[in-house]
Amino acid sequence: MDSLQLLLDGFASALTPINLLYALVGVTLGTLVGVLPGIGPAMTVALLLPVTFTVPPASAFIMFAGIYYGGMYGGSTTSILLNTPGESSSMITALEGNKMAKRGRAAQALATAAIGSFVAGTLATGLLVVAAPAVVAFAIAFGPEDYFALAILAFTAVSSVLSRSVVRGLASLGFGLAIGLVGIDQQTGQARLTMGIPQLFDGIDVVIVAVGLFALGEALYVASRLRHVPPEVIPVGRAYLGRADWARSWKPWLRGTALGFPFGALPGGGAEIPTFLSYATEKKLARGVAREEYGKGAIEGVAGPEAANNASAAGTLVPLLSLGLPTSATAAILLAAFQQYGLQPGPQLFDHNPALVWGMIASLFVGNAMLLVLNLPLAPLWAKVLHVPRPYLYAGIVMFAALGVYALNASAVDLIVLFVLGLLGWAMRRFGLPVAPAVIGMILGPMAEIQLRRALAIGAGEVTVLIKSPIAIVLLLLSALALLTPLLRKLMARRRGERITPGSHPE
């Protein structure tokens, strides 16, 4: 009952006129930026972080929630109409959705994506209401060694899951940890990696890192590969579903939600696995016309994965809000947003800032409803946004990012750091290094260092204190598993190849 009462209080906060306005602005901006080609929810939130710098915390996070879900909605529009997924979790939506659009069913593809996102987002947010307080109750027992082990789990899980190779993921993580070391050491008072520049003594602002690596790095990378041929945008009318489409979509929506939420809540679970699982499940269950349409634009192949994608988005908020553990790139940017306001997600956030947390959770229900109203009738308008010339689009992103960062402190040093990090983000994409581990390393690195020092101080310098807690042991074992799983998969694949006997291929 406590959670229900707190949620009702959250609705009282979210439904005030000013917060409803912030929610509407958030979902509109999120959809607008998320619709643009190659821009996913993570980049959307990162790009708009500086905009909310002067907004009160509760209103800002209601707006962030709208931006987050709006970016997810917008990404499906790009995937369906342009075959350009904003992030890897939208690849399956693009696979079947774009084929539906080419068959003249763009309106139905957009409608099942929008309604499926609404259904999955609403159900998953309800599960968030139940799950987050339960995880908080468990996390209260955490000691310094447990939080350090939790940070190690975040590092290893994100580095191994969000990268094509563990080595590249760990290399990206190393960049992030190095950026997090910049500034004055809190214990010794010594300056670290500041190169004698006074403006760096307080460290590099998380907003600058997020905008530089995500927004600016992505803009520079896309601009460097820019083709002058305008994108072919498939025309679309008002999004709607017929009776047969409803009958074929509602079960995939529910199954996608059931798959997406738990994977989103797992460290390193992400949205990629549940979207692929949803696609495979719907393909296996397909009968009759649906089976014939798979690979040619089956509506089940859009409905299920899109629901799984949005349900996993709500799932990522469980470890983020209750443990301060980001399990996706977008969650890492949201963690940066919390730190922008001097807040640290975790058990204390629920105790000290219940109005902010529950107002944000309640706003997810409100934002979902707003997005449904915005996306169904306004689909042709969002499609027109895709006609913006690419050079103007990415030049605008660079200018917007620079203005936003300069507005933080009115410092030229911040701009220099922004462009250096933007070039680093471009180089990382150019050479196949994932960006998310770097951002998570920068954000969680200082916390991991503080907790490690506290644990060692309590244990009088004995390293064994790090494995005395059962919670820490389990978390460290999970970290080892996250690192070893990709290597074991490669070894098993190699062994399967070696099992082929010479006689099995007659010459």
Automatic annotation (TrEMBL):
Q: Does the keyword Transmembrane apply?
A: yes
Residue spans crossing the bilayer: 20-39, 45-69, 109-141, 147-167, 200-223, 320-343, 355-374, 394-424, 431-450, 470-488
Q: Keywords assigned by UniProt? A: Membrane, Transmembrane, Transmembrane helix
Using the record, list the residue span of the signal peptide; answer none if the entry has no such feature: none
InterPro entries the record matches: DUF112_TM
DUF112 domain location is 20-440
- Sorted alphabetically, which Pfam families does this protein's record hold? TctA
By its UniProt entry, which PANTHER family does this protein fall under? Answer: TRICARBOXYLIC TRANSPORT PROTEIN (PTHR35342)
UniProt protein name: Putative tricarboxylic transport membrane protein
